[in-house]
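Blinded run. Sample ID left blank on purpose so nobody reads anything into the name before looking at the predicted structure. Input follows.
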Amino acid sequence: MHTSAPNPTISPKNHTLNLADGSSWTIVGRDRGGAGISRLLAKTMQLQPSPQATQNLLILDKSSTTRLAAQPIFSEKTLKSIVKNNKITCHLGPSNDLATLVVQLLELSQIFCSKAEERGGVSIHGALAEKDGNGIILAGRGDVGKTTASRRLPSPWYSLSDDSSLIVLDKKNNYRAHPWPTWSSLISGEKVQTWDVQSSVPLKAIFILSQSEIDKVEQIGKGQAVCLLNETVDQAWWGLDSQLRDKEKHTFRLQRFDNICKLVESLPTYLLHINKNGSFWKEIEKVLPGN
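Blinded prediction complete.
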């Protein structure tokens, strides 16, 4: 039995997404169904209505019968799109069940991530936390405890996202991190959350989580850091690049790997051994700049 998808309120207004790398997107619902998806995407990402188009357009369409070429990094079953200059037109398939709707929202949000990666960014499977205006990422595999750890952080720490983050390069070539939605929470039946995706913080370090009996930060070499981060970044994409031909997949992943290498050269990356009842944030504070 399928779970019925929510029926979002329809709005003809466009919504704008601005990222710290200087890119700006306008999300447009071209028909009634597209406007509904646009509004739901914007609500979850806390985007504001915008009367004007920006440098990039994401156009959503559910009623068109025009057959469009499949966007290579996304599954043809749920989303088809055609790219022309700075305009991406997406034809969304039916979303009569909640699982399909969530996959569509995930794929749409990853369009922004894929374009950010072309500019040196990284979409990562990691929770974003902030203290005193500076950000860290708690990265790791799906069952390592990122969400639980982010929820345990005490004041003056503040959890910005519990599972996903988007790292971008700003105009001064400094890394900043945006919180990113946990779309799977819609399937699990948890209370619907929203994320202030347009906010960003300067990124100071990345901690790769490992469950342990004691809390401890361990320094690791850059080669090991690249390999571990590459695994977490692959998880962030949920295999959405599986539709690529071999040559395209190689190019796509090579760009991502290069971005991770540059990230590790610029920012410290640690292993964070974490006990479920410990005070792991105290270990983080010992190695952060300025502490």
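Unblinding after everyone has recorded impressions. The longest strand covers residues 201-211.
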